[in-house]
Amino acid sequence: MPLATPKLAMSPSLVLLALVSSLALSCGPTTIEPVPDIPQTVDYDTVKIDYAGQDGVEQPQAGTLTGALVGESSGLAEFTRKTVFGTNEIMYGVFELIDRITAYPARQPQEGRWVWETPPRADDYLYLQIDAVDAETFSYSLRWGNSAQDNREIFSGWFTPFETADSPDDARQDQQGEGLLYLDFDAFHAYDPTSFEGKMAIAFRARNGVRQVRVGFDQFTNGDNEPLNAIYRYVQLPSGRGRLVFFGRGDFGEDGEPHEFFSVDAAWLPDAQGRVAARIEGGTLSQPVVVRQCWDASETIVWEESQPTRPLHDGGSPDACAATLRALTIDPPTYEPPNGRDPEVPEAHPSE
Predict the structure, then answer these.
(1) Which of 201, 193, 191 lies closest to 151, judged by CA?
(2) Class of residue 60 by CB neighbours under 10 A (exposed 0-12, middle 13-18, buried 19+)
(3) Taking a C-beta distance cutoff of 8 angstroms, is the pair 126, 118 a contact?
(4) Using CA atoms, how far apart are residues 156 and 309, in angstroms rounded to an integer?
(5) How far apart, in Å, are the Cα atoms of 192 and each of 186, 187, 331?
(6) pLDDT-based confidence at 11, cuts 50/70/90?
(7) Most confidently modeled range among 5-19, 63-77, 108-122
(8) E strand segments, 208-268
(9) Under a CB-based contact definition with an 8 Å cutoff, are residues 209 and 168 in contact?
(10) Distances from the Cα of 252 to the Cα of 4, 80, 179, 313, 340, angstroms
(11) Domain coordinates of the chain in residue numbers?
(12) pLDDT for residue 296
């Protein structure tokens, strides 16, 4: 049975970047020097997750997870890659938007507060405010709407002052810090009925070359697909090795309600070799389906094992998995429903 992944027709990053057009029109070109004396914002490169040395911000997100024979392309590898790339696209849109706005002089400089605001106009209004909550925390809020009197908060959050440190390979400077961002696409949808609906939260932590990202989706949809309720947890190590744990609920069987629960634990190496354990349960399934799999650098399956057994799909040997991946404990996680505490800012990682 094919298991369809949630599909998004348009990247949310494009929705977010579209907001900056009104600011650019009212304030001039975007190619200006950064403004001094504002709190340091978060670089996209600080929190992005690489898959085989790529971030995929221009990659499509639609895909279908299908059962595959050993020697065929892995749908689970495709799902892992496109999930990583799709999350990167959203984070890129958020942080690029903030960077572009804060490149302009703050309109209302105050002690501990910075405000950027488009001139009052009848059809487009953008307002960004950053506050120094204390010596350790900055909060920020972005509002958008028709005017200064008719607007809504579309995202908010906080971050710690980011420090810059040498990366493990000394090839670049890495930011170190943490933060949490909430995006309310329902508020944006109120002014643009063609845009996404739902809510989203991103929590991140970067320390000593280790990047951790947590993403939560609540009733997220573009109107054409089933609402996505999901949790993503990423870890990127200095070596380039990555890990994804995913929990979601949707019409993965493409057979209507009741919908299935889907959970994945996947790990990959810098050359794109990977290993995964996935579980699909509930919905119209009579019993849970568990799939374990490894793929090579071309995302070709080298080993697959299922419970219950699927003779037409299972085959190969776990010895064909990359040695580094064989050493990992990867089990199909039990589905965890989203809750008000998730995503939280990640705790310190052992590799930090």
Answers:
(1) 191
(2) middle
(3) yes
(4) 47
(5) 10, 9, 42
(6) very low
(7) 108-122
(8) 210-221, 228-236, 242-250, 260-268
(9) yes
(10) 5, 15, 32, 18, 24
(11) 103-292+307-326
(12) 93
CB of 179 within 8 A of CB of 157?
yes
Q: What is the pLDDT of residue 71?
A: 60
First to last CA, the chain: 41
Question: What is the rounded distance in angstroms from the CA atom of residue 179 to the CA atom of residue 233?
Answer: 15
pLDDT single digits (tens) 63-99:
333 444 456 778 888 888 888 888 888 778 777 777 7
Residue with tokens 């190496």: 269
Length of the chain: 352
CB of 279 within 8 A of CB of 263?
A: yes
Q: What is the DSSP string of 166-188?
A: E-TTSSSEEEEEEEEEEEEHHHH
Considering the entire predicted model, what is its pTM?
0.78
Residues whose CB falls within 8 Å of the CB of residue 273, separated by 6 or more in sequence, listed in order? 294, 295, 296, 297, 321, 322, 325
For residue range 175-211, what is the model confidence (pLDDT) as tens digits? 688 888 888 888 888 888 877 788 888 898 988 889 9
Say how far apart CA 214 and CA 216 lie, in whole Å: 7
Rounded Cα gap, residues 350 and 102, in angstroms:
34
- Distance between CA 229 and CA 221 in Å, rounded? 9
